[in-house]
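Colleagues,

Please find the record for the two-part complex below.
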Amino acid sequence: MDEFYGRTGMVLHIDLTTGTATPEHPDEAVYGRYLGGRGLAGYYLHPFADREYTDPELPLLIFTGPLTGTDSPTSGRGTILSRSPLTGAVCDGSIGGGLPTRLKKAGYDGLVITGRAETPCGIEIDDHDVRVVETSLWGTDSDAVLHGLERQLPEDTSLACIGPAAENGSLLGSVAVDHRHGGVRGGLGLVWAAKNLKYLTVRGSGEVRVHDPAALAEAREAIVRLTMASPVLMGGHGFSHWGTGALFDLINSRRMLPTDNFQKTFFEQGAAVNAAALAELYKPRDHGCLGCHIHCRKIARDGRSLPGFETMAHFTANVGNADPESAMEAADLCGKLGLDPISAASTLACLREITGQDYTDKTLLSTLRAMAEGGDLAKGALNLAQACGRPEAAMTVKGLELPAFDPRGGYGLALAYAVSTRGGCHQHAYPISHEVLRKPVATDRFTFSGKARIIKLAEDTIAACDSMNACRLIFLAAGLEEYAKALTAVTGQDWSVQSLLEVGERTTVNERRMNAGNGFDATDDDLPGRFFTEPGTSGGGVEIPPIDREKFLQARRNYYAVRGLDENGAPTTETLQRLGLDQ
Amino acid sequence: MKALCEKYAAKLAAQGLASGTGPDAPLVGGLDADLTWNREDPRTGELAGLFSRLSINSLVFIRPAEPYRTILDFLAARNPDGIRPEDTETRTFLHDIPVCADFTAEAMAAQLKRRKVIVIPGQGVAACGTVTPEQGFVSVSSLVFSSFVLFFSDYLNRARRVELDDEYADAFSHVVRLLPEPHTDLPGLAAGPFTDEEGVVAAMAEAGRKVVGYGLVDSFFGNISYKLDETVYISQTGSSLDELEGCIDPCPLDGSTTNGLTASSELSAHEDVYRRSNYDCILHGHPKFSVIMSMDCERDDCPNRGHCHIHCTECRTVDGVPIVPGEVGTGPTGLCHTLPPAMAANGAAIVHGHGLFTAGNNDFNAPFARLLEIENRCRDLYFDRLSRYA
């Protein structure tokens, strides 16, 4: 690490077929163009982006960024990226906990994991000691794996693993990271399973070198000051106090809480399952990722993780359940089985609409268990709905189940869902920020006017954030202006808002070109028909009509124009050349 | 997009930050698929070059109205490497203000790719946004406010240290001649107490418009609240105080909901004032001379110098109105810790480098009157203090 600031200069290629680990030292130019995290992982995926998840050559990528492991606020983030078994699209997951920090401190900017072990295995990294070991943990749930490994390994070790869902071939298989910091969507756990990889442990004792610690301290001070000034993050009603569940009341009052599989947008029993109700019931304590001062995770007194907003909303309003304990149990079970809770709950909601059968406490959990064992339920809402001859009941984009924000309540959100490279995802542009939370300024949530370029710029901003590897949430307070100063201080290279946005644009277009190569086109950049034909639940002074189809299509055309895409949503030759992606 | 461009151009003029008509009227550009401007002007050709060089969707350019024009040109000439005010707005949101020597797209873009707002001496001020033109409007307004505070604060400090030069003295007397006369009349706001949500919201909206109209705050700064039974109604974060309809959050004091997620960042401070006192309503503005006087201190040898905004331990007042340290929000050095006890005891308090809070009962008439009275008193005090030195 002697020659580099903010990075180690080493990417480790681990071939599970041979059990070998080979270091690579990427060119300086590669770091300059892709930075790290999601950007750099996308660079490594591109040559293999057309491979199926069963192909041993498809890489599983786990990357840190230049801020990971430094004093930059919220620096404990990393990226898991591969081609999604669920959607076939490029899929990234932002991970936290301590794993990214420890991977960096072990000396690696990222891991490129390929091949397939003959028998179930784990990867154990202790600084430069890298081992691929056979494991008998296959078949055990995530909690058992992580608790078991914790007992064997030093305290400062981080852990990630898959659960039975991925092992059984569920397309909703997720990845548990340090118990509570996975949240990986798109079935990426199945990529682990396809490689016979059950777990990863990482311990790192090195330090991440910073070029100008005094300048980083100054940048940190500015970012922390903005965080403290943010009502969303640190206010009495904010995430630091309540967790992301703080969104529940607000989203419900804005009449954009998906209810009954998005057939309604207001949940009458919201007060029974909101953040205040959970706090009263479970007396949670704070928990956060390494390097974070926000601590948005909340741990119940009984040790269970309190669900974040999206999980709680989907296991209550979207499946017609007003019992907080059954929602807690469902979320906890997802964690143990290694199921993506958003997709799992959305698939349950889809099934409920198709069958007309409400869940009881028991059937909610038993259906989840079935989902982790295989069959149509394990293939997600779209495949389930198609198998039942009811494709219109799947609330998905590109096959990925929508999170707990109804697009009829925010037209920027509607556009963001449609064009996101990983499918039904609001996090790549996070229009909730300005359409609901008023940051950096409020926008009219019921208009597409101006939204095409807003979404494009937000996508670039978040892709830059994911490539530096800061937490997306902090951009509800600080911005690239402050983070460019932090990155300059860390790396010693001159970064600006503009140069960061260029990395973000390259990252997003790289993902677009991979998706286009896999056959994605404009028909995939679309929303379920329900949102154009059925109104939401109006009330409280707010009317929620169906989205005007023509205005949506015009906004999508505008997005294609400002993003430099052709009419099918593929990057033009000119765009690829401009971003140096044509080679 | 064009409608938004026109809206913020009009607001800049309405708040006296720029001329409403003629060649110095604001230029506001917005880009979605196509670039539109609020009006035609020869300078849009050069300014359009910023959209091709920067990842932005909106731009605000103004030649500030007087006296801000003189202030900004003076400060830019004195600080060609950048202007560094020390008020809260700057510390929190602006950080520092680059000075760009040339009105060319290339030169301006080089600065705007790092900062949200820049000064071009003799030309104007440019600010960009990635969401709406409101961002540029906020940045320009913040810059003008911060520069005003810096200009007057620095002049008083230099006078005290006998470091004034003729150029500064000339600029200062020119600016002072251009200052508007202080308001002495009162607006006669709706009489309370208000007994339902509709009445509360209407009274808050009216008070907000008047506070902005009297120049006691720029529209998007500050906040207003009213306690009805056990619910605090408060303006939303980043809301324009002259457009509060639809931007007021009801926040029950029992913590049974988190609807206050979009409430002002000062919600915690307001709530604590109500818990500690019998007041019914609070007004918070950023009157310029109150902010200037809050930052004025003769103790050059104080060990907390440079950190006065968070660490000042002196018992300082303006005619008995306490001046307290504290940053925006709820952090360990947040004003939520310092403001409530001061407000509960005095009904008014000034936060160092930030602004003025006043409380009242039943309706906003008394807190409004006190806001105006304290600001006018601070203005008098400023010139009194200055007269001791210059």
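Chain B has two domains: 2-178, 197-387.

Comments are welcome before we finalize the supplementary table.
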